[in-house]
């Protein structure tokens, strides 16, 4: 039997609850579809930081490297550890060390879920560049505190980085409805974004079966609200993708439904799967966190590992649960009830 090794980092707050829920569902899928999951749980979290002074051990990355995939619940507990420390001590180093350059987030309305828009039937895959661009960390401040103070934040776009994220997007579009929208602001940002546009056209030539649109970020923000059903795959830089995926999460009904994957297509290093939401200290320990975003992220992990039938079945089970109204409204169903409903639908 095929066995996949998983590094589980439940993290803090509801991260722990939704990781447990996800593993319950994945275990049912494994039994049903004839593969095995071998999870190892790592206690790396803010609690771990309080005990040890580190978010993960010195050799944490090396400990993760041999796994087939990493699953992360959520990390952060601002009461005891500043968010800048918890984020930069765990999540960001993992994304960087394993070159997880594609952050992908599906946005669609599950049956029974009411989003804030009238739009129905949208099914968008947002692909955000995850390693460079506006979040490269290049820049500086001089004359701090003086009248002539200067701050710069330099967006870095490399040919390698832009090409690989666009190519990844075209592959995804090819496997879906064959439409890709590249999001830039090349009217105002005349170097990096014009370069991005040129790269899009160059790579588009390799994918004649995929139709391509170019859109500016501001127009895209409006489009996602006015006509999200016209969109298929969206590819955007780190900053633009960050903003659009929050918008995407909102139109799909909120953070309880927003799943994500941090992908490095090179199978020699693990990719990482996580719900978009954080540790939600306000509802932690109350058994009311919605585990759907987390379970959906788990399905994306199985899909990445090659268990496509199991991944599709989990998605159908989530839909069967929400179609009955389970997990569709905040607080109406408990974490356990939603998990049980998804498991039951998967077993049926
Ligand atoms: P958050 O996502 O934890 O919570 C925002 C709001 O959404 C809260 O009212 C929360 O109760 C609600 N919410 C989130 N997920 C939910 C779910 N599954 N079901 C029902 N309601 C849900 O964001 P917040 O409060 O800004 O951050 C809390 C901590 O989480 C911080 O330490 C932050 O740094 C961290 N964080 C970690 C992330 C990660 O590990 N990837 C991502 C975002 C935040
Ligand atoms: Mg964000």
Structure in words:
This protein is α/β, with parallel strands linked by helices and 348 residues long. The protein folds into two domains: 1-110 and 254-348, Isopropylmalate Dehydrogenase (3-Layer(aba) Sandwich); 116-237 and 246-251, Isopropylmalate Dehydrogenase, CATH 3.40.718.10. Helices cover 41% and strands 23% of the residues. It has helices spanning 14-33, 46-52, 60-64, 83-97, 159-175, 192-204, 217-226, 238-251, 292-305, 308-323, 335-347; strands at residues 2-11, 35-41, 69-74, 102-108, 123-129, 133-142, 150-156, 179-184, 211-216, 233-236, 259-263, 271-275. The strands form two sheets. It has a ten-stranded mixed beta sheet, sandwiched between helices. Strands 6-7 form a two-stranded antiparallel ribbon. It is globular and about 55 Å long. The model has no long low-confidence stretch (mean pLDDT 97). The structure holds 1,4-dihydronicotinamide adenine dinucleotide (NAI) and magnesium ion.
